[in-house]
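Worked example

This section walks through a single chain of length 231. The input is the sequence exactly as stored; nothing has been trimmed or padded.
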Amino acid sequence: MAAVTVGSETRPGSRAVAKYVRSSAFKAREVLDLVRGKSYSEAREILTFSERRISDTIAKCLDSAVANAEHNDELDGEELFVAACYADEGPTLKRWRPRARGRATRIRKRTCHITVVVARYTDEELAAIDARLALKGTGRRSSAAEARRRRVAASRERDAERAAEQERDQDEDDLEALEGDLDDEALEADFEDAADEDEQDEPVAEDAADEDEQDEPVAEDAADEDEEKES
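Given that input, the structure is written out below as tokens.
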């Protein structure tokens, strides 16, 4: 396990640092005091249900420290605890706020550097923890890393399902648009056929009109014959 220097001490452990966090060191220290010396699972639970906004940043820093221990030192996440955690003051941003009578008031935007160090319990401490949990009738909690992996896998599955659903919706929209185009083409073809039929029917009507015109002289000849008989 890598050695980490905490103050003037050098102790085994893995650490993670979050620099230039936009919060004061005082606010971060109040939350760090809650998780110092706790196991990883307990510390993560405390940070999850904490109402302080800085708790999210500290939780990410804690997860990073545990990930470093698992990846670099091949340790089990459930055997780790918060060996040390502290917040150092970072640079302060100076801003000004206008006040009455042409005056100005300085605004100090504090920043801090948060450091979390995790280390492995000794074999004796792990045995004592197992014995204490056995008396309660429960076993050691599942690895936090495994729980995190399950959450990531579930999130990826949800993203894949959402992407597949969007693709299905897009395919349905494209199919509906294609069917609409086919329907429009069919209607246009029907209109064209109807127009062609109307054009074919017009000569028939003209022929009927010509026949009527031819019949009219016959009627006039019959009228002339009747007049001659009467005379």
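What to look for: The chain has two domains: 3-141, 162-231.
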